[in-house]
Amino acid sequence: MLAERIPAIQSALADAGFDGWFFACFQQNDPIGLDLLGLASEGKLVTRRCYYLAPRQGEPRKLVHALEPAMLDHLPGSKSVYLTWQKHREEMAKLVSGCRRLAAQYSPNNELPTVSRLDAGTAELLRSAGVELVSAADLAQRFAATWSEEQLAGHRRANVHLHRIVLEAFHRVSAALRRGDQIDEYAVQRFILDAFELAGLWAESDPIVGVNAHSADPHYQPGPEQSSPIREGDFLLIDLWAKEKQAGSVYGDITWVGVCAASPTEKQHEVFAVVAGARDAAWDLVRTRYPHQPVRGFEVDDAARGVIRSAGYGDLFIHRTGHSIGTSDHGQGANMDNLETHDTRLLLPMTGFSIEPGVYIPGDFGVRSEINVALTPGAAEITGAEPQRELLRLLA
Predict the structure, then answer these.
(1) Looking at the DSSP assignment, which residues form a beta bridge with residue 322?
(2) What pLDDT is recorded for position 44?
(3) How do residues 189-212 score in pLDDT, each as one tens digit?
(4) 217 and 209 in contact (C-beta within 8 Å)?
């Protein structure tokens, strides 16, 4: 939470040349702010606008509504209270007085949507008070996306379980096919969720299990009313993510692929080799440069995408190379992205992310190979297990 980190935040503000970090919370508008201010963990329902300003120097400032006057009492700082809209506007001007350059959850041109949470009206109000808004993207990554040693250990444990469970799921499909039993995507998804429970894991959404054309849909989800049978000769993709159940745990998130056959087709083999090569190129860039040279999110995407483009599949790689991982599966740090966004954020120590390039052939099959990378202060590591080196052969 923010309270114990105020000195470090003030030092970071001074280094960046910012006069303060401004937070505006209303309902569920800003996951970064709600998390750092402790409002998410406290389970508080923010039904009226509240504000927190951490200045570069001096005491933090709070502005809360008269109906929720204790909303920020767990945080240090002086407090002002408003009730009417006129008083709100007056107190807002006082809150930011003396601060010319304020960092906020704002991204110019909405370049980084996960950071772009400040609404246009509040931005107008701040500018009318003489404030220059700057993006808190780097601050948010430093203070909302970094892991503790305990979180890193939990991430590693979760990832070990995920690798075991994904192989057990493929084995379950293999055994059913050999016996001639019926099995479908939804049944495999339920098996994975049961395995999560036995392992003490939890996920905010269900895993992806897709055969054939469904594997070519990166966000396909089977369900009781939407599930295809898995048959001999099919291509199968399983993407699963989970974390330990205790508060503050960090996710693992991996994807493996296989064929329900003794061997893949030539095309399946070719596409997997391209995707695995792209994954390895991205990992090699991180591994060889971190921590001695700066690495930015878009550069990792470029490394993977270049391999896929050179192989002639560039138009079929339709998402970023990877995403930040945290207490939510998609975290608040840098994404490996130069497609959907141009992510210039540095990869920081004690953060983690996925590398998951893919090639998706509509109506046929899709290949994704996903690993997780954790950055300790001294090195980059792939967590859980070694990357998948060849397509699983379920009837070999």
Answers:
(1) 336
(2) 77
(3) 999 999 999 999 999 999 999 999
(4) no
Encoded tokens for 299 = 């550069």
Closest CA to 98 of 155, 166, 23, 22: 22
| Direct distance between the N- and C-terminal alpha carbons of the chain, in angstroms, rounded to an integer | 52
Q: What tokens does 335 get?
A: 């994404």
In this predicted model, what pLDDT tens digit does every residue of 53-65 receive, in sequence order?
Answer: 999 999 999 999 9
CATH no. of 149-393: 3.90.230.10
Shortest CA distance to 320 belongs to which of 278, 285, 258, 276?
278
Ranges of each domain in the chain: 3-144, 149-393
> Could you tell me the pLDDT band of residue 42, with boundaries at 50, 70 and 90?
low
Range 3-144 classified under CATH 3.40.350.10: yes
Task: Quick: pLDDT tens for 235-262.
Answer: 999 999 999 999 999 999 999 999 999 9
Strand partners, 103: 21, 134
d(CA 368, CA 370): 6
The reply to whether the predicted model has a pTM over 0.90 is: yes
Which helix H or strand E contains 93, and what residues bound it?
helix 85-95
Burial class of residue 318, CB neighbours in 10 A (0-12, 13-18, 19+): middle
- Tokens 């909302």 correspond to what residue? 144
Of 215, 199, 301, nearest to 252 by C-alpha is: 199
Distance CA 295, CA 47 (A): 40
Please tell me the distance from the alpha carbon of residue 144 to that of residue 387, in angstroms, as a whole number. 28
Model confidence at 384: pLDDT above 80:
yes
- CA distances to 178, 186, 239, 348 from 192, rounded to whole Å, are 20, 10, 10, 32
